[in-house]
Amino acid sequence: MAQLVLSVCSGSLLLARAGLLDGLKATTHHQVIELWNITMNKGILYGIGAYTLWGFFPIYWKLIKSVPPTEIIGHRMLWSFVFVGLIIAARKDWGGFRPIRENRRNALDYLATAALLSVNWLVYVWAINSGHIVESSLGYFINPLVNVVLGVVFLRERLRLWQWIPVGVATIGVGYLTISFGALPWIALALAFSFGLYGLIKKTAALGSVHGFSMETGFLFFPALGYLLYLEFVGRGAFGHESILVTSLLVLAGVATGLPLLWFGAAARRIHLSTMGFLQYIAPTFQFLIGVVIYGEDFSRHRLVGFSIIWVALLIYSIEGVLHYRKSY
Prior knowledge:
This protein has helices at 2-17, 20-55, 57-63, 69-91, 98-102, 107-129, 133-141, 143-155, 161-181, 186-203, 209-233, 244-270, 273-279, 282-294, 301-328. By secondary structure, it is mainly α.
């Protein structure tokens, strides 16, 4: 062993004298940077893929509009659990559930997130198939600002001045929409707060994204299965009684739900949070355009003013985040 160490040291000394060690270090440094760039690029592609799929969800749910929203959600819960369960089984990645085995109380977090997820899914699918795609997109536009508010209320986070300003501007935008239409934009607020609370609990939950999602859909699996069997028993089930396309899309709802989630998890591990912050606007932007351009939903002058105020708030929030990140790093 001593001879081996002496040989390595001697070799390093000869390389240093020959000026080759610096070249080796430079090459290694260049390779590390290149590897980092490849990883970041893959992460960005995963992120774009995830948010793009989420952005095109309205078209997917519109294709099965003939099925009641509650039945769609039942199938989404059931097949999502099957999909994520098959992935975990294929990977033989059962060790990810260790925190639950060590402390069963950790499962309560996933019972809560499962409830929030079911509310979010039901409101979203109902809204899409009832002609409220534009208002649904508003919910995901304001979601980052709702997350900021939830962080202050529940995590005692302290905001910088230029974080408070966009929250205030967005509140003015929501207030304007409320006054203009004589009612709160409840669909947008329900989606934003249900998803915001979901993220808040997941922030401190014990499991990774894939295992956590399997726990959530696991809690929802048997109620969903029971409800779908009931519909079949009373002759109101759509599965197998609609067209082949509709039946196939009901089954594939699990893949459509799980795939972007896996891509999102892969992106989050590879790229900066500030980059994810920009990518997250891809989904509501596509949803908004699909609602207005493809399905011809109303976008009156009052809506334009209200949305514009909220978009200004998001612009301020995004610029402040980038500047703060650059200043910190």
